[in-house]
Amino acid sequence: MVLERIGEWSRYLTNPKIEKMLNSIKGKNLEPEYDIKIGYHYPIVEEVLGKDPNEAKKTLEELVSLGILNKYVIVKEIVCSDCGSSSLSLSLACPFCGSRDVYLNSLMEHTPCGSMGIESSFIDSSGLKLCPKCKIEIKNEEIRIVGKWFECKSCGRKLREPKLIYQCRMCKKEHTVEDVKFELIYGYSLNPKVSELLELSMKLVGSIIKVFKKKGYEIELASSVPGASGVNHVFDLLSKKGSEIIGIDFSFSSEGVDAEKVIKFFAKTFDTKMSDKSFLIAYPNLKESARNLVNLYKLKVIEIDSLDKASQILEDKLDSYLEKRDFLKVFRKK
Ligand SMILES: [Zn+2]
Ligand SMILES: [Zn+2]
Ligand SMILES: [Zn+2]
Fold first, then answer.
1. Which residues lie at CB < 5 A from ion ligand 1?
2. Hey, which of 34, 51, 97, 290 would disulfide with 286, CB 3.0 to 4.6 Å?
3. What are φ and ψ of residue 183, in 5° steps?
């Protein structure tokens, strides 16, 4: 169920820059632009994320591996196998002697008289097109090209196929067609399921951040906390103020969050000794077995049964938790 990935997605979907970028490609495809120096790149992504072309591409691939974006091949481009540049010049060479002095020759016919010959035999010393038989100047429309082929000026051979030489304009290395590299160039589109979640996640995570920020907390997304076992446990969100840390995980499932997720959450909060200061946010609710475990382990779970009221539910629950906490702190000090 795609909803379950939202915890994993939260750090991307709640990053304001990524959220803006994803919103900008909602309902359309993200296609690259070509630049002679940097090749295919994604200027919109670079601009929104404030990243260079390579970093922007990396982010796009990360989003693909997470299932947030889908990708499709636009072109398979030839690039330099040495430096990766796509700026290559193409020239022809003789496969026998290696000379670059390869030219296209043709067999021509002067249609009024039927005289045939190679191109050079139709041109006189002054460069004028002259029929070798009629000795009159030829009009363009009186010429028929009978055939064309390549020839090497150096060794005089007729070439069935000249050799293709790609020279990299950046590192100057030369490559034959056998040793160039191919690079797949992609277009990207938003996974349609993400569009709905983008909104949901923004709402929920936005509310959480708002409540904590109001109380002077700093938010870290997808941050880890070391456990007593030596294992590092990643929380979808960590709220920090001084030495105090509150961990938050999301679990969304259309059929109700199951016991397995609760057990994992318990193990994580137990190992990090954070069970009294961690929240599991469940949308839309817990399954019965999961609820039993929550009661047994005395875990803090907030069920978001209504999306419209999500912000309100979260703010109320977190507010009252933080107030109680502050009260207890003052009380303990006395
Ligand atoms: Zn190169
Ligand atoms: Zn040759
Ligand atoms: Zn003629």
1. 80, 82-83, 85, 168, 170-171
2. 290
3. -125, 130
What is the predicted pLDDT for the residue at 324?
Answer: 84
Tens of pLDDT along 128-183? Answer: 888 989 888 888 899 999 999 999 999 999 998 999 999 999 999 999 999 999 99
Cis amide prior to 132 (ω within 30 degrees) = no
Task: Say whether 211 sits in a helix, a strand or coil.
Answer: helix
Alpha helices in 191-309 (DSSP H): 192-214, 259-271, 288-297
In this prediction the pTM is 0.57
Residue reference for tokens 């475990």: 293
The residue ranges of every structural domain in the chain are 95-161, 215-333
Q: Measured between alpha carbons, how far is 132 from 123 in angstroms, rounded to an integer?
A: 8
Specify whether domain 215-333 bears CATH 3.40.50.300: no
Contact assessment for residue 17 and residue 49, using Cβ atoms and an 8 Å cutoff = yes
Ligand 2 centroid from CA 116, angstroms: 25
Q: Tokens for 114?
A: 């039927």
Going from the Cα of 88 to the center of ligand 1, the distance in angstroms, rounded, reads 8
Q: Which helix (H) or strand (E) holds 163?
A: strand 163-168
- 258 φ, ψ (degrees, to nearest 5): -95, 175
